[in-house]
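User: Teach me something about this protein's shape.
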Amino acid sequence: MNKVKNFFDDFTFHARVMPIMVVTMPIVIAAISKGILQGGWSENIGLILLSLVYFTMTSKIARNLGKSYEKKMYQQLGGMPSTIVLRFSNDTFDEVTKKRYHKKLNQFDGLVLPLDASDETSDTDLQYISASNILRNYANSNRNKEQRVYQELKEYNFWRNLYGTKGITLVVYLF
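Assistant: First, the predicted structure itself:
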């Protein structure tokens, strides 16, 4: 597992490779048990190297499937989860907390988030989307400062990509 982790960066491993590992777990278990029973270390090393190539290729497929699912999910939910949470009409956070978040986010150039529910307009969601993009980029650039946000990004992308591959997963697990 550590050799596989060395081949990929932290984000790619957790958000893209791990979903593929979940999908292919029955195949991997069968291959390992066959390798242990039949021996052949040179063959096993070759299979490990081939699995790295396989994980690289399929991680991109998983990401693309996850992104296509994400668009459908946003349509069903009525927006990005962060956009929904930032809206004053959503009750995930209290109004005082939302005002505090909005003030902090307004410190970024170009953002003008409303500080009151009456200030929200139809264009406000564009500001919320922009705020989400700014936070995502900031967290990726400052992983040590924003460890929790970075961890949430990894988790979100893992589940998005895993859910995007659910059709493939069901077929693999059935066989």
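Now, about its shape. The chain has a mean pLDDT of 83. The chain has nine helices and no strands. If you'd like, I can walk through any region in more detail.
User: That's plenty for now, thanks!
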